[in-house]
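HUMAN: I'm a chemist; might I ask for a sequence paired with its structure tokens?

ASSISTANT:
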Amino acid sequence: MPDITIIFILLVYIATDFYHHRWTIDKGPERGVIKWDIISYYAYLPATFIYKDLKLDFVYDPEFKNDNKIWFTETENGGRLIITSMGLAIMYSPFFFMAHALAPVFGEPRTGYSSIYQFFIVFGALFYVIIGLFVLKKILMKYFDERVTALTLLAIGLGTNLYYYATYEAAMSHSFNFTLLTLFFYVFIRWYEKQEWLYAILTGLLMGLITLVRPTNVLVFIVFFLWGVFSWKDFLNRLFFYIRKFHLVLLMLLCFLLVWLPQFLYWKYITGEFFFYSYGPAGGRFYFDHPHISEMLIGYRKGWFLYTPLMLIAVMGIFFLIKKMPGSVWAILLFLLAMIYVQSSWWAWYFGGGFGGRAFIDMYGIMALPLAAIISKGLEQKHRFIRISATVIVAVLVLFQVFQTTQYYKGAIHYTGMTKTAYWETFLKLKTTGKYWQSLTMPDPQLARKGIYVYYLTGEDKTYLKKLTKEEAIDLIIKQINEDRELMKDIERYAKRAHTDPDEAIKMVADRIYEYKKDW
């Protein structure tokens, strides 16, 4: 039954891929697959193996048309730096080389950006995510029966936003890291069962690649270290366990660093430093003093539980693990809380354009355990009505997720501007309305990088600006700012961090709002 479920998910994924066939859009500046964040993730491959120039001098070659092929940020020493780490490029690479070899056979140019390269990236993601589901099956079957495992796999594969990021935007990092974290989960469970050199090596290599793809996923170390720990005595025993196994710990660390070595060498080559915070020049940072937790979990803009309601059930399922798997409870709960806190503290807590809480997709292989626990509890009930209800609830939420995914694809759920009004205007609808488009609010990324969150209503009447001088308009905006308590708190926090006068900070924000609205 679980194998049939995975095959069914695979067929749905393949059908969805051919339905949108985004790889056929291969003209710049808007390609179907290699676009937005993928431009940076992917850039290492063509720069290294086609243009043979990691310093990116080739972007100024008159024969090279940089129509959104390469993005970079300038460093203080004048270097041109790819802002993202190279983990995804490593995972793309087998499929990049296959596309590069086959391009002449299909009459495609060997530029790294034509349709065949995009096709292989999409189906490379599919390859990885199906591996992840089979590994997840092995984990679930260790603790649950076939029926629970099959329902849980269906819920994860089609009942979450993994479905969207394994198909419509397959080249994003989430489906890749879903598989990496799930595989890591499987390997370290085996490591605790049998401390062999092989599992130490695999643990270190996987941890290195997980963080090289998405550095914040270093938090998965919490699950790794606390797995099997339920009491203070267990915690002390775990510490002594690693002291006794220090030689294997060193091997893990060595393997971790080995994965990161190419990145360190690249940073040294471009910046002169072995370790470089590449998001720094672009203004990327965390605001740990002001996490947007409620907005990230239940807000209309990107609420994780709103756009993937099955994950709310999974979170509740953690408490159903206490009797069945007590040693997993603290590991999963603390990992979840740490992920929520850190991800909601990022300057763009809404993570730009995206469907729901996409930053959490990576940990769905781990969250599958509490989800399975609550499904198992429902199916174990004596009353047939409760057993049927548990199955129906999962099925309905899977169908609802598929529908919401279709809504997002068709624009009935906006990529970054959703509000309460917009959500309910298109609820259970695939077509948008004028009211929907007029009720969206767009974040200001320039101010967000400073930890100041301003949202512009798309339907706002801005004609009044034409009737005012610039000074009058800014005075009016300053008055509006002073009446907005939340915005004032953001500005006060910014002024304190920047060691600037609060009134000057308010003036800076007012100037920015004026320029944005004037040109919008």
About this structure: Residues 264 and 274 are 5 Å apart (CA to CA).
